[in-house]
Amino acid sequence: MTRLAIVGFGHIGASIAKAVHADHEIIAIDHDEEVLRKARDRGLAGETSSDLAACRNADTVLLSVPVRTCVTLLEEVLSHMDPAALLLDVASTKGILLAEFHRLAPPVRYVSLHPLAGTERPGIDSANPEIFRGMPFLVLPVQNADEDAHAQVDRMIAACGGRKIQIGSVKEHDAALAVTIHLPHVLACALTHLAEESSQTLSTDIFDLAGRSFRDSTRVASSDIRMVHDFLSTNTGDTAAAIDRLVDHLGRIKKLLVAGNDEELKSLMNAAQKLRGRL
Amino acid sequence: MTRLAIVGFGHIGASIAKAVHADHEIIAIDHDEEVLRKARDRGLAGETSSDLAACRNADTVLLSVPVRTCVTLLEEVLSHMDPAALLLDVASTKGILLAEFHRLAPPVRYVSLHPLAGTERPGIDSANPEIFRGMPFLVLPVQNADEDAHAQVDRMIAACGGRKIQIGSVKEHDAALAVTIHLPHVLACALTHLAEESSQTLSTDIFDLAGRSFRDSTRVASSDIRMVHDFLSTNTGDTAAAIDRLVDHLGRIKKLLVAGNDEELKSLMNAAQKLRGRL
User: Fold this and answer.
1) Which residues are CB-neighbours of A216 under 8 A, at least 6 positions away?
2) Could you report the predicted ipTM of this complex, rounded to two decimals?
């Protein structure tokens, strides 16, 4: 049985523990004693510790803390790890973490993961392995990713019910995620503030006039601020570029609207409808 | 029993028919004979017709066609209506329809409605009264809205399970909906096209890298094009203004990101989180 240390036993860490506990001995590591107590009480971990030194007993160490915290903890985690062990992370952005890893140049095997299964409810109390079912599980081999490492990652993704997707490079990961995850969070924030601003000129509370489209487009404004800030602030270049490009697209649509160019507007909408169908 | 003529027996019209058929005699009017056959076969209407003249037998006439079609049909519908009858519509934008109504200056009572219960699946086959449950049902009294008219509207909304919300003016309706409905549709279109554009520079299909946030933010790109084009193209001024203001908000967020102004960024996100909680 693989001995898996999960560093950070929050929503994602605890959900993965629930998904894989059948064939993994889990070591829960968290700075919060209350979280560790819950992990024990709920049978999510055979061993718990608030000390990163507990990583020394693991075949695999999974970093499941915000990316900035991954960077902060990395050197200490590596100092405890068996050089033959496998390092995994589930950070939302990869650039700064992989840069730090390469700077430290440790001997361990490393596969970087990213399950696209966020939720606006953080913490161990909302841990639920079903959040991964059918969702993309991005896989970016970083160093010495041998057959055994890949087999282990595959077993973990299978236990989660995720869809494995290989990513070409860290650059590609962060650029793509800027569009598919980070920008939607920026949009939700902007749209919510715009609605509030508009409310001030109306006799009705505009939040009473929201249908499903507004609800869905702003859902992630309810996300955990620390998590969102973490990925936005570690991917500012790509996110800023995505904002600029979206503004271009908005300008193009506005131009068609104002000009009454119905044919081109409809053709743009038709194309979007077809593209959305690919999801 | 109220004799209710529903002009346009599509998704919304047929869903309302299902919700209110217990205490309404329904006359389904549609240009599509196949739709009328389904309305009869499914017991959704006691009488069906492809002729607007069937409105003459109704106590209440509900226009449930796209807003441009409402405008086109309005004069003929009114020509058949009993002057004491009640006119209702469920159009997505109100400006051009009410302007046409006031131009024609007919004697009928008129209350304009807008159930915020759209869906990306159009047509009678997806008719479902549950789409209205708990959703806002906007009410804008236009002319001679007496006690009887209000009582009838209230009964209808209650049968649908909607939440009645009085709107101050047509101007207010269209400005608010530009933010809460029309802009989210524009954003979904823009975001989908941006993703496609980004795909071209990546080795992975970016649509494979979409999590729930992208899914939710682009859901309405799958909406019926005719319906979306209908409301966008009849509310271009307000929608263009909403785009401009959203672009301002995006610029503000981008500036904070690029400057690494974490405190202000978090404070903006905190405020958005609280505002979103009002939904």
Assistant:
1) B184, B216, B217, B219, B220
2) 0.90
